[in-house]
Amino acid sequence: MRRRRQPNLAKITVSAGFAALAVVVLAKCCYDRVAAPAAGNTKSSLGGVPSLAKGYCGATTQRHILGRTSIRPSYVKDYHRSNPIRSAGIPVFAGGAFASPPTLKYFDARGAAEVIRYLFAASGTKYEDYRYPFKMEGTFGQPGFKVTKEEFDADKASFKLPFQKVPVIEVEGHIYAQSKAIERYVAKQVGLFGKNDMEGLKIDMVCEQIRDIRDAWTKAKGYKMQPDMTDESVASTVNTFFDTDLPNHMDMLQRLVSDEGYFVGGSLSLADIQFYNFLNSGFGPAFAEKVTPLLEKYPKLAAIKTKVASEPGIKEWEANRPQTAF
Q1: Which residues pair with 52 in a beta bridge?
Q2: Could you tell me if residue 127 is left (phi over 0), alpha (psi between -120 and 50 degrees) or otherwise beta?
Q3: What does the alpha-carbon distance between residue 80 and residue 195 come to, in Å, rounded to a whole number?
Q4: For residue 128, what are the β-bridge partners?
Q5: Model's pTM, two decimal places?
Q6: Rounded-to-integer distance, Cα 255 and Cα 278, Å
Q7: How many CB atoms lie within 10 A of CB 141?
Q8: CB-based contacts of 49: which residues, under 8 Å, 6+ apart?
Q9: In degrees, to the nearest 5, what angle opens at C-alpha 59 toward C-alphas 22 and 92?
Q10: Mind listing the pLDDT tens digit for each residue in 248-305?
Q11: Angstrom distances, CA of residue 187 to CA of 113, 125, 144, 276, 318
Q12: Most exposed residue of 1, 219, 251, 297, measured as fewest CB within 10 angstroms of its CB?
């Protein structure tokens, strides 16, 4: 007859001990997150260890676990409604994930960094707007034109820029490059990248379409800051762009506008800000007269432009931002 195996009481005791400890830690976390702040106690007795929770949308957000208190800014919209952690009863807050103000580095110009600045402005997020000085000599596009940017060149030489170009963002001592990557990252942190992954996907989709329109315009004008309209072939492609190509793009974009008047959902997002910046700076003053009457044919798109411009943070930024040539 086969002998019955006796249970290992030592292993059972250890396992039960770990399970009990897990229950105590979870209970303490819930207390620190809910009961303690309500009672005015914001310090955990578990050692004050910081913790970061990965949100459903891919954004890293702070939680009051193991002694770290996350303060939800009043301007941040809660975009983690479908977060499984929330359904488990543990609150997760969107935005406010910067332990200290990040540093955005770019030239003293709007250019590829302005959408990022708009995101910070619209959300009321503090950051350092660091601008590399530069000096231009001569006329752009003409022989003898020269740009001097000593500090930027020194940072390139010392490999302080990942890809030897700007913009870059410094977050907690680490530097990251590529404007579109930075835009998406910042948008997620400040609550302007949708309420869930599917809204985030649509926001990304609109932003990429806007980039396609910008690329088509660059090709039409001949890859120059201002097209040479005395060149018949260039003038022809520019006119075709405004008469045919851009209206087609605008028609497709207008079909995506939600019933609430935004590209995605019922609130401001990176897609709206991207579109707003494109309309304002994508064509330059010489062609603004072509864009304005065209936009009148697309009332939903015109309404997005008006809504973004009326955002308090955007209005304040545009009234006080440094005046630059471009």
Answers
A1: 62
A2: beta
A3: 6
A4: 103
A5: 0.70
A6: 18
A7: 10
A8: 66, 67, 68
A9: 45
A10: 999 999 999 999 999 999 999 999 999 999 999 988 877 888 898 999 999 999 999 9
A11: 13, 11, 40, 15, 19
A12: 1
